[in-house]
Each structure stands twice: as structure tokens, then as C-alpha cells.
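User: I'll paste a sequence; please echo it back and then give the predicted structure.

Assistant: Echoing your sequence first, then the prediction.
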Amino acid sequence: MLFAASLLPAPQVSMDCVDTGANIASVQTQPIRGPAGVAAVLKVSSADDHSKNTHLCMAEYQLLITPAAAGAPSFVDILSSDGDYSRKIGLRLDGFSPDGKHVFGLLTEGGKTPLTMLFDYDTAGGGVQLTDLIKLFAHSSARKCSSAIDVIGIAPSGALVLESSPTQQCGAMRRWLLDSARSQLQPLPQGASTTSLYRSPVDAP
């Protein structure tokens, strides 16, 4: 069963972690709208961490949530990271749950300490749940094969459906179930029912 305004893969935006001085370096995703009309934008800003003992670049990730009715967006702090200058940072806003109660996306970083983090924002309670996908996929063929990960849907049990696509010719695309506690990963059974995430462009009628 599918339920989505768009089934196309969510576009990713990226930048290098730098400090531009007077102007803050930043990049953000295109805004998307959920089933209840709430709009979301994922943004990252970077600057020197101003530590006396290190010369590292800090990245700060925020989600901007705009209510369906006219009003100013609220800013939700997702994550702050400190690491190598010029490391590649990637953002992807995958979409809303079909009931509009959750927003899902991915944060990725290169450098000496790579990061691939899934976030789950609760639009009602305001909480953010982070899941380290590098740790979860550490012993799977997807991680060994250097695969890109996408959040593509939700199972009837509430588990998230992830898709791993090899970035090299070393394996096949696979789909996985990530339990509602975001702690256990298992292959998606063949023929299992899933519901796609909801993602509509803000300028759509």
C-alpha cells in the first residue's frame, strides 16, 4: 500500500564545513509539506569552533517547522558536531509519516570520523530521536559495500523501512526494517506491506 504525494527519491544537498568569517556558511533542503499542511526545511550552518586547543569546524543542524496556518517557523535543534575542516556534509529530508506526526531525514558527514545519522522529529511532542546508521549497518553487507541509505516508508508495526543502494558495483539494492525503538535492523520480508512517506512540495496546491 502506498500513500505519498511524491514517490521520487528525496534530493540531497551538501556543502563543505568551513568558516567564511562575517557570513555564516549554510545550506538547506527545499521545503516540503506534510499531510496536515505543516512545512519543514532542514538546514546546516558551519563555523570555526573557536577552541584554543583545536582547529575544528562545528556544524549545527536545525529543522525549521512552519505551521499550516500563517505564522513564523519554529527552530528545532537536531545535532551539533565538531570535526575536520572541509569535511563533506550532506542533508536529506525524506518526508513525513502518513499521519503527519513525524518528520524523517538523514545527516551525513565525511572526514576522519564519518557520520550517518537518521533523525525522527515528533511534531506533536517536539522531541528528536537520533539513530546512528553506521553502527546499525556495521555488520551488514550494505555497510561493507558502501551503500547509500534512504528512509522510504513505514511498516504496519511502526517500524521504518530503509533502502540501501550500493554506491559501487558490489551488491544489490536491499530493503530493511528498523524497529520502532530504532535499535534493531532486519531484512524486509518479501511481499511485506509498507506505506510510503508523505512529501509534497510547498508550492503544490
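The CA atoms of residues 37 and 69 lie 8 Å apart. Helices lie at 133-136, 141-144.
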